[in-house]
Amino acid sequence: MGPCICGGMAPPILTLRNVHLTFGGTPLLSGAEFSLQENERTCLVGRNGSGKSTLLKIMAGLVEHDSGDRFVQPGTTVRYLPQEPDLAGYASTKAYVESGLAPGDDPYRARYLLQQLGLTGDEDPAVLSGGEARRCALARAMAPEPDVLLLDEPTNHLDLPAIEWLESELRSIRSAIVIISHDRRFLENLSRSVVWLHHGVTRRLDKGFQHFEAWRDEAVEIENRDRHKLDRKLVAETDWLHKGVTARRKRNMGRLRALHALREQRQQQRRTGTMVAMSASSSEASGKLVCEVKGITKAWAGVPVVTDFSARILRGDRVGIVGPNGAGKTTLLDMMTGNLVPDAGTVRLGTNLQINSLDQRREVLDDNASLKDVLTGGHGDTVSVGDQPRHVMGYMQDFLFLPEQARTPVSALSGGERGRLLLARAMALPSNLLVLDEPTNDLDLETLDLLQEMLADYAGTVFLVSHDRGFLDRVATSIIVWEGPGQWREYVGGYSDMANQRGGGVTAKETVKADKSKKNGEERSSSSASGQSVRRKLSFKDKHALETLPKQMDAVQSEIAGHEKALADAGLFSRDAAAFQKAVDALNAAQATLAQLEDQWLELEMKREQMEG
Description:
Layout: E1 14-23, E2 26-36, E3 41-45, H1 52-60, E4 67-72, E5 78-81, H2 93-98, H3 107-116, H4 130-142, E6 148-152, H5 160-172, E7 176-180, H6 184-190, E8 193-198, E9 201-205, H7 212-230, H8 232-238, H9 240-271, H10 282-288, E10 289-300, E11 303-314, E12 318-322, H11 329-336, E13 344-349, E14 355-358, H12 371-376, E15 382-385, E16 388-391, H13 392-398, H14 415-428, E17 433-437, H15 445-457, E18 461-465, H16 469-475, E19 478-482, E20 488-492, H17 495-502, H18 540-567, H19 572-575, H20 577-612
């Protein structure tokens, strides 16, 4: 895989060639290249600290590189959205946005964008929250409809309605767009190509982000194999992190299958009447029931926030709560966990609940404390995870920290590393109910994979408030969604399941509930022209594939285990290089086959759920 090469016959409107940049004696960019065509939609990806934001600033002409060339076609307009916008010196948000317009630009578009992003234009920039300042900066960047739009984390601090609106708006404009984001669904829905910044150089994939991770893993495997021939020990020491990430992604495919099975179980419980009034059985008294709310209602200053909401949460459920900012997600969460008394209705909590919370404000860490001291409380070398002691070094590596970082002070950690450290400490505290309020804020893709794995292994129950649709799809067993002032409703499945049932995401109108469909739980009714309900089924071919694919995957997994066992022989390469290469090739082929089978199974399983339940 070489450096990025532009596609298409038309000359690019923005080009970077052989760009080098060094910070504090450390090379950050080592010959990075980039090209952008008219109307192209591309995303720039890479690990935290790899230089993505710096490269975007070089594209915008805001950072001077040490060497190399930056070329922008004459007359091309470029607008840039920073992560931390500066609105100082402007009398109002409208004045700030209009300052980005050029002569001839439509001033109405500035007002339209502010309104769509929840601002009036009259706000004083000096008193804006971080989220409001970011929405204002987004309006300023988009208002001129520039030829090139450079967006650094555009979904940060946006709620789900704003994210879905932004996707729609970006699809409709003529600008070529470069996006840095950790929101997988946002990248999948918008990107047509991917530029990967890795070890200071760029590589290009002329497909959308949904194809990136498999492509990246293959590229890294080739790198590791070539390096392996030179120095086996060096590979083991320098690439353990990426191998862990790759393995985690593959493990999470299996966890997705388990999640689908759990969603089916929850759906079946609702169909068979387990939502009726409960008896105080000994099993539920011991903790099977986590929370049951009946008709809870809450209003603030006469404004309804929650009205007549009922739900029953069992041990092991992962409940996502979604809705616009200010809809009352935290209020609902506080009532369901017993921290807030409802105005009406009842809340029944399970026995022996141990609640651990990680909220969106994120507690402040002691900058002078070391990473090890934060995890151990400054005592000893072990961390208690559940009931099991873990050596702090092994536990650190679970959260993608290197052993040599044990004595690193918190002040030296990046934002993403701080987020991982908070997660590591939160997951180590004893609990059987985990309450996570916006846990995905500012986390990179690798950390999101890690959090997904941790939640899959968590033995208790999870309440999750999040604006990350992809993460909700990979974690939640049900979604409680806001459907109007005070109105909340629970749907079995992830975010996409909820959107399919409602006919859209959080911005969709409340679906019409036919009387006949009520007995089937949360199923949305649909009628044919004759008024009869239509229920589709899988074809015989698809049904047969669903039944046989698990056996095929098991067989390939056994094959992979055999190849990995052969390659674990440290002396194989020196004894028989050809046999070593043959085993590597066979392992790669088997892993690719397994990934294809897993993708096919997941696609058919989701199709089955949509058609039959």
